């Protein structure tokens, strides 16, 4: 393994979003993001940091600072240490946008799969299909976003479609998370749902009411009910799940 990565942190925590909410996972957070979502709660990951941090004991937050970039062998050793106790249900690769480091992941993930017998779970903005194709063979679960322009300020409709199509063709487990706030434009949501229906009407969609921020007010309960009903006109599997880690005061 020669490729290196920019690491933000490695730690053990409770998955706070999506269909695996509540699972204990090892988080590998990589640095750098090419998007600037209005609701982002991870702005500290936008630029790859000169230093990252690694938790020494799972869940204890006894972090040790490390200097970037780091090697795949170093990351593997830190993940092994988290894995020792056998309490985790997946390794979550997150960011930032982890697919910005696809060259590293394409080299690293085959080694990770050989060494640690946990499902590999990718959390991604879902807007980089080319990089996704590089790492897809080593992924077990994909949590992709569809970014509504009225909510995120980003617009990647066709890239999201290409991304989802690749996953469906590969037969890998995927769900799509759509974040909703009070200013959600129904036309945009409808366009997203129609696109997903055309690719796979069975795709699981999570409508995630935004964790409120000054720039992103929460949707009203009536809006959420209306949008779930709308989504069910297009797709067979739709759930509403908010973020839970802020409620728990978790990282
Ligand atoms: S893709 Fe994720 S990390 Fe990047 S700006 Fe959006 S929410 Fe933040």
Mind explaining what this structure looks like?
33% of the residues lie in helices and 25% in strands. With 251 residues, it is an alpha/beta fold. The protein has a single domain, classed as TIM Barrel, CATH 3.20.20. The strands form two sheets. Strands 5-4-2-3-7-8-9-10-11-12 form a ten-stranded mixed β-sheet, covered by helices on one side. The chain has a two-stranded antiparallel ribbon with strand order 1-6. The mean pLDDT is 97. The site of iron/sulfur cluster (SF4) has 11 residues, from loops.
Give me a quick take on this structure.
This protein has eight helices and twelve strands. The protein is an alpha/beta fold.
Helical residue percent?
25-40%
- Specify the structural class: alpha/beta
Indicate the CATH class.
Answer: Alpha Beta
DSSP summary, beta strand count: 12
Strand content: 25-35%
Query: Ends: how far apart?
Result: 30 Å
CATH homologous superfamily?
A: Aldolase class I
Structure ligands: iron/sulfur cluster
SSE sequence, one letter per element: EEEEEEHEHEHEHHEHEHEH
Q: Could you tell me the radius of gyration in angstroms?
A: 18 Å
Main sheet makeup: 10 strands, mixed
CATH architectural name: Alpha-Beta Barrel
How would you state the average pLDDT, rounded? 97
SSE blueprint and pairings:
Layout: E1 4-5, E2 7-14, E3 24-30, E4 51-55, E5 63-67, E6 70-71, H1 72-83, E7 90-94, H2 102-115, E8 120-124, H3 129-135, E9 141-146, H4 149-152, H5 157-170, E10 173-180, H6 186-199, E11 204-209, H7 221-234, E12 237-240, H8 245-248
Parallel strand pairs: 2-4, 3-7, 7-8, 8-9, 9-10, 10-11, 11-12
Antiparallel strand pairs: 1-6, 2-3, 4-5
Helix pairs in contact: 2-3, 3-5, 5-6, 6-7
Bound molecules: iron/sulfur cluster.
Iron/sulfur cluster binds at residues 33, 35-37, 40, 42, 45, 95-97, 125.
